[in-house]
C-alpha cells in the first residue's frame, strides 16, 4: 500500500502520462458539450463530474488508470535499461543472446541471398493485396528457410546463466538444488501460492468444472479490474472474448482499425526476411495441428503485422533511401525493441488459440499484441521478472524437488532432468499441447492473476498426475512417451489438487 | 519497524548532490589473525561531509549491490551549543532485499527521504552506513553511487517587486493599419458564437437542401450571398 508521499507522487506521474492521451481529449470534449442537463454555473465542477460518472466516462478513466498502475514506477536516478531489467548480468546475457540470434539471421540472409528487408515490386504488391486473406493457399519454396532457433537452444542458454557474485563454492546440502537452473531468483512455494491463488481453492466453483457456479457478469459494467477478478475463476465461453479485451484494454475504435490498415499496407509494401520465417513456422506448426489449421491465413497476417509494427515504430525517425541501410536499421530495431520479436520455432502458436475468440483481424491483432507485450515475450527473453521464463523454470524445479522428491530423484538417476521435458510446454504457455478449451481456461488465469506463474504450477501438477507412470520408466525416451499426450488433461482440477491438496 | 522503499525522488531536478568523500568500506572480520578471517556479513561505510559545512539532508540515494539491510547513523553537531557532535540512529535495518538469499532488490536504486528518518537530519557532519548481508550466497556486497541531497527551504511567495508596481497601465491603441478594430471584431465573433449555440439548441430535422440542380453540381449556380 502506498503511503502519503509515494501516493501523491504516483498520482502525479499517472496524471502526466494520461494527459494528452486520446482518452483525455475525449473526456474534455464530452465535458464541453453544451447540452448537459442540470448543469448550473454555480456548481459547474460537481455537475460536470456527476455527468461524466453517469455517462460511463469515469469508468473508462478508471480503466486507463488501472492499466497505468500495472506499469512499474519510475525512479529518476535509474536508467531505462535498469527499469526493464535490474540485474546487470542478465542484461548482458540477453544482449549476447540477441547478438547470436541476429548473427544467425544475418548469415541465413547471406547464405540464401535474400535481403533482410526490401521493397516489393508493384506487381508483387498487387498480388499480395489480392491474396491477403488466403495466404495459406500459397505454396512458395521455403525449404531453404530454417527457424532461427528452437526452444531447446534457448534452454541451453538459460542453463548456462550464472551470477558472477554468487558463491557456489560452499555447497551446503540443505540448499542444494537438483535442477538445471542455477540462478537464485525469488519463486513462491505452495503456502504462498495458496494465499495468492485463493480463488482456485477446492471449495470455490470454477468455470469448466462447476458450470452452475455462475457469477454476476461484469461485461455490462465495462470495468477492467472487476473483469480481471472475475476471470480468476474462469470465463464462460460466450463472454470470454469481451472479457479478455476488457482486461487488456484492447479497444477496437476507428483509430485502431486505421492503424491496422496502415500496418497491413506496410507489410504489403515491404518484404521482410522474417516474414518468411513466420510463414514457414505457421506451415510447420499451426497448419499441422488438428485444432488450428483452419486459422492458417489469420496467423500469417497477424504474425507479419506484429513484426512490421516493430519495424515502423523504430524506423519512423530514421529515414533512409538506401535499402541496405534500412535493412540494417531494421535488424537493429527488431532486436532493440523491448520485446525482441524474432520468430522461433513455435512462435505462431501464441496467436493460434486467439483465433477461436476473435474473427475480425484488427481486433485479433490488437488483443494478440496486448497479450504478447504483457506476457508472451517474457517466455523467450532472459530476465529476472517473476513471470519470466527463468523464474518459471526455477519455480517448476523447486516445486518438483520440494513436493515430489522421490520422482525427481528417480528421474535424475536415469539421467533425465525434468526441466528438459517440461520446458517446451512452458515456453509456449502450453499452446498446442492442451486441448483448446482447456488452454483457454489456463489463459483465463494468466489474465486474471496477471502472471505466468500458473504455467509453472501446471507443469509441476502434470508431473504429479503422471508420477506413478514416471516412477516406472527407465529411459529418457519412455519418460517422453509418458508425457507426450496432454490433450486429455483437465487443467483446473490438476492445478487445484496440486495447490490445495498436496500434503505439506 | 516498517521500512518504506521509496521509489521516487522528491528533490527537484536541479538540486545538486553534496560533494563529499567516501572512505573505503570496512568489512568487519571475525578473528584476529589474517589467516583466520571469516566474513561476518557486516560492512561499514563512512561518508564525511565537507569540513566546517554541516548539511541539512533532504534525501540519500544509492544503488544497491547485494546488501540485505542498511542502518543509517548520523553525526550531528548543533551549531548553537558548544556540545561535541553526537551520533544518532536515523534508520535501523532498512530491508533492501526481500529475501537475503535471492535476487530481488539486489541491484535496485533506493531513496531515503528525511521524512523516513527517525531524527531530524540537520547539521550533519558525517553519515555512517552500516550494511548487513547475512546470506552466504554472495561473494561480496556494497552500496554504489551514494548521493546526498541537501535540504532547501522553499522560497516564500515573492511580492511583486517595487519597480513593477510603479508602472501604470496605459491604454494604448495599437496601430491598426487598416485592420478592423479588435473590439468590434470580438463582439461580432461573440454574436456568431451565440448564433451557433442557438442553432444547436434549435436543431430541426428538415434537410439542409443541396445546391445541385437535376442531380449535378454547377459552380455557377452556387449562391454567393
UniProtKB/TrEMBL annotation, chain A:
SUPFAM superfamilies: Ypt/Rab-GAP domain of gyp1p. Residues 234-450 form the Rab-GAP TBC domain. Pfam families: RabGAP-TBC. Gene3D superfamilies: Ypt/Rab-GAP domain of gyp1p, domain 3 (1.10.472.80). PANTHER family: TBC1 DOMAIN FAMILY MEMBER 19 (PTHR16110:SF1). This is TBC1 domain family, member 19. It comes from Oreochromis niloticus.
From TrEMBL, chain B:
One of its GO terms (cellular component) is nucleoplasm. PANTHER family: NICOLIN 1, NICOLIN-1. This is Nicolin 1. It comes from Oreochromis niloticus.
Amino acid at each position: 500500500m502506498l503511503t502519503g508521499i509515494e501516493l501523491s507522487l504516483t498520482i502525479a506521474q499517472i496524471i502526466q502520462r494520461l494527459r494528452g492521451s486520446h482518452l483525455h481529449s475525449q473526456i474534455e470534449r464530452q465535458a464541453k458539450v453544451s447540452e448537459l442537463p442540470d448543469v448550473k454555473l454555480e456548481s459547474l465542477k460537481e455537475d460536470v463530474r456527476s455527468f461524466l460518472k453517469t455517462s460511463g466516462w469515469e469508468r473508462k478513466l478508471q480503466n486507463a488508470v488501472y492499466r497505468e498502475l500495472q506499469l512499474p514506477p519510475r525512479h529518476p536516478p535509474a536508467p531505462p535499461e535498469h527499469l526493464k531489467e535490474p540485474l546487470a548480468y542478465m542484461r548482458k546475457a540477453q544482449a549476447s543472446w540477441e547478438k547470436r540470434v541476429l548473427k544467425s539471421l544475418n548469415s541465413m540472409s547471406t547464405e540464401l541471398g535474400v535481403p533482410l528487408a526490401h521493397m516489393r515490386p508493384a506487381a508483387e504488391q498487387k498480388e499480395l493485396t489480392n491474396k491477403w486473406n488466403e495466404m495459406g493457399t500459397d505454396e512458395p519454396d521455403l525449404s531453404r528457410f530454417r527457424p532461427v532457433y528452437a526452444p531447446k537452444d534457448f534452454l541451453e542458454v538459460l542453463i548456462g546463466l550464472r551470477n558472477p557474485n554468487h558463491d557456489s563454492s560452499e555447497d551446503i546440502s540443505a540448499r542444494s538444488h537438483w535442477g538445471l537452473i542455477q540462478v537464485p531468483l525469488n519463486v513462491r512455494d505452495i503456502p504462498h501460492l495458496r494465499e495468492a491463488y485463493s480463488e482456485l481453492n477446492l471449495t470455490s466453483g470454477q468455470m469448466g468444472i462447476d458450470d452452475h457456479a455462475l457469477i454476476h457478469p461484469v461485461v455490462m459494467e465495462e470495468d477492467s479490474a472487476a473483469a480481471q477478478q472475475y476471470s480468476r475463476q474462469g470465463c464462460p465461453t460466450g463472454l470470454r472474448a469481451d472479457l479478455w479485451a476488457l482486461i487488456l484494454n484492447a479497444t477496437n475504435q476507428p483509430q485502431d482499425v486505421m492503424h491496422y490498415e496502415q500496418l497491413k499496407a506496410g507489410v504489403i509494401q515491404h518484404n521482410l526476411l522474417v516474414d518468411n520465417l513466420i510463414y514457414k513456422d505457421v506451415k510447420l506448426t499451426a497448419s499441422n495441428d488438428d485444432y488450428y489449421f483452419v486459422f492458417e491465413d489469420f496467423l500469417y497476417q497477424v504474425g507479419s503485422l506484429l513484426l512490421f509494427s516493430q519495424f515502423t515504430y523504430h524506423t519512423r525517425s530514421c529515414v533512409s533511401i538506401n535499402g541496405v541501410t534500412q535493412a540494417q536499421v531494421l535488424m537493429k530495431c527488431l532486436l532493440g525493441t523491448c520485446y525482441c520479436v524474432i520468430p522461433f520455432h513455435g512462435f505462431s502458436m501464441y496467436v493460434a488459440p486467439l483465433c477461436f475468440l476473435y474473427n475480425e483481424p484488427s481486433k485479433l491483432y490488437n488483443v494478440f499484441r496486448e497479450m504478447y507485450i504483457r506476457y508472451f515475450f517474457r517466455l523467450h527473453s532472459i530476465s529476472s521478472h517473476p513471470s519470466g521464463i527463468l523464474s518459471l523454470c526455477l519455480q517448476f524445479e523447486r516445486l518438483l524437488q520440494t513436493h515430489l522428491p522421490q520422482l525427481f530423484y528417480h528421474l535424475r538417476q536415469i539421467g533425465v532432468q525434468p526441466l528438459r521435458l517440461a520446458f517446451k510446454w512452458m515456453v509456449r504457455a502450453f499452446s498446442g499441447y492442451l486441448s483448446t478449451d482447456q488452454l483457454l481456461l489456463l489463459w483465463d488465469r494468466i489474465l486474471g492473476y496477471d502472471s505466468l506463474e500458473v504455467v509453472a504450477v501446471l507443469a509441476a501438477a502434470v508431473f504429479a498426475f503422471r508420477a506413478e507412470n514416471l516412477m516406472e520408466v527407465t529411459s529418457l525416451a519412455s519418460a517422453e512417451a509418458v508425457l507426450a499426450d496432454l490433450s486429455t488433461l483437465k487443467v483446473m482440477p490438476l492445478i487445484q489438487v496440486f495447490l490445495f491438496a498436496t500434503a505439506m | 519497524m516498517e521500512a518504506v522503499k521509496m521509489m521516487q525522488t522528491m528533490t527537484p531536478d536541479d538540486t545538486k548532490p553534496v560533494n563529499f568523500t567516501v572512505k573505503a568500506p570496512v568489512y568487519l572480520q571475525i578473528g584476529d589473525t589474517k589467516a583466520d578471517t571469516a566474513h561476518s556479513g557486516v560492512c561499514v561505510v563512512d561518508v564525511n561531509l565537507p569540513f566546517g559545512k554541516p548539511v541539512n539532508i533532504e534525501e540519500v540515494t544509492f544503488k544497491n549491490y547485494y546488501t540485505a539491510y542498511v542502518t543509517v547513523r548520523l553525526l550531528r553537531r548543533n551549531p548553537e551549543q558548544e556540545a561535541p557532535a553526537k551520533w544518532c540512529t536515523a534508520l535501523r535495518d532498512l530491508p533492501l532485499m526481500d529475501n537475503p538469499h535471492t535476487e530481488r532488490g539486489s541491484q535496485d536504486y533506493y531513496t531515503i527521504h528525511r521524512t523516513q528518518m527517525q531524527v531530524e537530519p540537520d547539521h550533519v557532519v558525517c553519515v555512517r552506513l552500516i550494511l548487513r548481508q547475512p546470506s552466504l550466497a554472495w561473494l561480496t556486497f556494497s552500496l554504489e553511487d551514494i548521493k546526498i541531497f541537501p535540504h532547501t527551504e522553499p522560497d516564500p511567495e515573492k511580492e511583486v517587486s517595487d519597480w513593477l508596481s510603479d508602472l501604470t497601465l496605459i491604454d494604448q491603441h495599437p496601430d491598426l493599419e487598416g485592420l478592423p478594430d479588435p473590439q468590434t471584431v470580438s463582439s461580432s465573433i461573440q454574436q456568431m458564437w451565440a448564433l451557433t449555440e442557438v442553432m444547436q439548441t434549435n436543431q430541426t430535422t428538415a434537410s439542409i437542401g443541396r445546391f445541385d440542380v437535376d442531380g449535378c453540381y454547377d459552380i455557377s449556380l452556387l449562391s454567393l450571398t
